[in-house]
Each structure stands twice: as structure tokens, then as C-alpha cells.
Write a structure and sequence with these properties.
Blueprint (H helix, E strand, L loop, with lengths): L11 E4 L13 E2 L1 H9 L3 E12 L4 E10 L13 H7 L13 E5 L14 E5 H7 L4 H4 L12 H8 L24
Parallel strand pairs: 1-4
Antiparallel strand pairs: 1-2, 3-4, 5-6
Length: 185
């Protein structure tokens, strides 16, 4: 390592064998140790490197900034049902009022009325809207959802993730990422 540079600030963007990121949100990143290990295990190709070195007694190498897998990993078609993925599907907006703050998730058909915790029955709601709706149906409280709750594909979540780029994007990653100014939320 040169000087007093923190290697923790040098993650590697991980691309599939087709040179697309494994995921956009969260962005597929490996810490420098995992990228170096993958290089030595011959699991990745180095696409781009930082101007920072690591060395052992016998080897000196630049830290990878972009790596591509040698074997293509087929992405799953449907993502896992998680709170975060529900928020991502709904673009981090309350599906009742459009607010982006104090988010929770709400059962469209309340659990007390037989509603299940599934993609088709859970939507993002801000705390005030969720409290207002409580354990009632939308009709009972005179509310409506901005969009229908559906199970998204991984592709749809990736596309939504492109609206929310991470705070840090290294210049060497830009040729492999597809965010642009028109996608701002």
C-alpha cells in the first residue's frame, strides 16, 4: 500500500461475465480483500485498477476497482420479499400520499381481516398514513393506493435502483453503470 491510504475506501465494482453489475441497488461491490482473493483464485478478470498497491514479501499488485466474473451467474427472476425490496419496488414513496419520510409497510388487506404478508398485499406507507388506515380496508377509510401491489422481477428492482445511485461512484465504474441525469427521482 502506498502512503497512508485507507484500503477500505477502495471497493471493487463486481460485474457479471456479461459486464453488467450483479446488482444496482445495492450496488454489487466487494471489499478490496475479497477482490484480491478472487483474482488469486482465478474467479475474476481485472477490468480496471486503482492507483493503490498492496504487497506481500513476493508480490506487489494494484487494487482492482472493477472486476468481472469469469463464469456467468444467472440472476434469479424474482427477488426475495424483504422490507427493503418493497420500499425499492415502491421507489421509497408512500403509496397513499407520495411522502418519502418515516416509511413503514402496510398490509392493504389488514392481517386482522385475513391479509397475507405477500408482494401482492404489502405496500410502502408513511407512518401517518399507516396509522390513519390502521386495520381497516382502503374503502373503509376512503384512501386509495397510487399503484397496485405486485411481485416485481429482479429486472424491475434493478431499474428502480437506478433512480437511487449510491453516494460514492468511482470514475472507473462509470462505463459499466447506467445512471443518467434524467433518472433522478
Amino acid at each position: 500500500m502506498t502512503g497512508h491510504v485507507s484500503l477500505d475506501a477502495h471497493p471493487a465494482l463486481v460485474l457479471n461475465a456479461d459486464f453488467r453489475p450483479l446488482s444496482y441497488y445495492p450496488l454489487s461491490l466487494w471489499c478490496w480483500q475479497d477482490s484480491i482473493k478472487a483474482v488469486f483464485l482465478d474467479r475474476v478478470n481485472i477490468v480496471s485498477e486503482y492507483d493503490v498497491y498492496v504487497h506481500s514479501p513476493s508480490t506487489k499488485m494494484r487494487v482492482p476497482s472493477v472486476v468481472s466474473l469469469k463464469d456467468y451467474v444467472r440472476p434469479s427472476r424474482y427477488p426475495a420479499f424483504t422490507r427493503f425490496n418493497v420500499f425499492l419496488r415502491d421507489r421509497f414513496e408512500c403509496q397513499y400520499c407520495g411522502s418519502g419520510g418515516d416509511l413503514t409497510f402496510d398490509h392493504v388487506i389488514p392481517r386482522s381481516k385475513g391479509g397475507k404478508t405477500t408482494w401482492e398485499n404489502v405496500i410502502t406507507a408513511c407512518a401517518p398514513c399507516n396509522l390513519r388506515k390502521a386495520n381497516k380496508t382502503l374503502r373503509q377509510v376512503g384512501m386509495s393506493a397510487r399503484s397496485r401491489a405486485v411481485q416485481p422481477t429482479v429486472h424491475e428492482l434493478h431499474n428502480n435502483g437506478r433512480y437511487f445511485p449510491p453516494n460514492y461512484l468511482h470514475q472507473s465504474w462509470m462505463d459499466y453503470l447506467y445512471w443518467d441525469a434524467e433518472l433522478e427521482p
